[in-house]
Amino acid sequence: MDQQYILEQKAWIDKEIYKGIEQATSEGRLRDSILYSMRAGGKRLRPLLMKNTFDSFTKKNASYISAAIALEMIHTYSLIHDDLPAMDDDDTRRGMKTNHREFDEATAILAGDSLLTMSFETISSDENLSSEEKVFLIKELSRAAGPRGMVSGQMWDMEYENQETDVDTLKTIHLNKTGRLIAFSMVAGGYLAGVGAKKIEKLRRAGEAVGLIFQIQDDILDVTGDKDKLGKPVGSDETNEKSTYPKLMGLEGAKQEKRKYEEEVDSLLKDLQAENTPLAELIAYMSQREY
Amino acid sequence: MDQQYILEQKAWIDKEIYKGIEQATSEGRLRDSILYSMRAGGKRLRPLLMKNTFDSFTKKNASYISAAIALEMIHTYSLIHDDLPAMDDDDTRRGMKTNHREFDEATAILAGDSLLTMSFETISSDENLSSEEKVFLIKELSRAAGPRGMVSGQMWDMEYENQETDVDTLKTIHLNKTGRLIAFSMVAGGYLAGVGAKKIEKLRRAGEAVGLIFQIQDDILDVTGDKDKLGKPVGSDETNEKSTYPKLMGLEGAKQEKRKYEEEVDSLLKDLQAENTPLAELIAYMSQREY
């Protein structure tokens, strides 16, 4: 899977996202703030995972667009709220000011609330999905994003800040904070492609492992990465006293841990007869990414 | 409609709400914070409006419970986020500490995010509703709560803070900030009772008017109310330099404005052949409430 392909798909997803937001908002500062964060250089890996899962199991026309937009809206809302002064207190993200620094805290809170609400509006209003499909997607997405999923991950992340953690705790945090939404992208892609319940559970397990791979690679890049490619300073986890895989297991230990999850994913994709698919290629690309 | 009836219904709704929250969260600080705000003395007027609308049009068994819980979750999330230091910066609500004062800002932000997410999970997981019913409710609720509804009202409310406003602007703010969710309670109650599309639009208009009545009465009570009944100081709008109906129209003007909306509601309820129903009684009760 080459960079060019990723960029083309990303451009297409971006266009769909901006269209969706303009339909669901009125002109003004709130829309500006929502669009600002949606435009702020996201890699769109979650929508890409959904698309490539779908394409790996069917030749049907794309029916995942609203689910992909909804997922990216939820991902973006979580970044806006995580960056707030009361949370991680970040001034920049991907080389741009964070939402509350570009606008203000109140606007950032409401932009996040808007995106979270719009994600469910987007799926429920999609005329190309059946009611059963919409309900499946909304149930899955709300569970992945809510207080037994992503939000709990963020809550624990803060509760364990500046505390000694072990690898198991770190895994639980990332599984919820990152893994659940990434798993949703593969569950939704497979479900809409018409894959059965047993295969969906395998896609979910693979997606959770992909989430951990993604996070471990993030931690590794913070040690070994190239500042210019990353668009952020290297070594910031060390400075922020954040628990990371390299810190708990050493750099080699972290790479081995990542390898463990890569093997799990490979084995699940083999079970799913999806080892030579765009999905497998994309996951390999994500696992080796340099930014 | 007497106080006793309201309290009985409220107790029943409360029980359903707490059950719903325990199912959708894990033990810990986040759940404690969510339950704290859900228990903080809400009047449950929105669920009551939904129930009484439903009961006014059908004798069927209650099928609105998840929608009522979802609505109250969204109402509560909006209060938690509105109270934050970056927004209205309130330390107390109904005589209790606000969520971020009892817990902390980060927890309050995440408790609000959780409730908003759980509201859609609650409807989508209700085994007593058809997929069509769930999709209708989620679409309506997300539109009422999102950046063309409640969130936009809160955004404008802040943008117009300490600015001169006129009655039209004030009406637009309250229609969105309060009216849209109250209208949802009547739209959902009527829809689940099996009322047709034309009647649903009348219920929506009546609900928006009820929202304005509710808000004007709030403003009036801030001038004429009894501190002990209200559980909050009287005259705080004056102190906070908030735009209110009595300030823009005088106390008598505000009462007349409220009367105008009461007449609109009466006329709509007559059209709906619902003038002698529990719904009409509840609206009259809300309009005259002393706290």
From TrEMBL, chains A, B:
InterPro entries: Isoprenoid_synthase_dom_sf, Polyprenyl_synt, Polyprenyl_synt_CS, Prenyl_diphosphate_synthase. SUPFAM superfamilies: Terpenoid synthases (SSF48576). Transmembrane segments: none annotated. Coiled coil: none annotated. The keyword Metal-binding applies. One of its GO terms (biological process) is terpenoid biosynthetic process. GO terms for molecular function: (2E,6E)-farnesyl diphosphate synthase activity; metal ion binding. Its cofactor is Mg(2+). NCBIfam families: FPPsyn. This is Farnesyl diphosphate synthase. It comes from Salimicrobium halophilum.
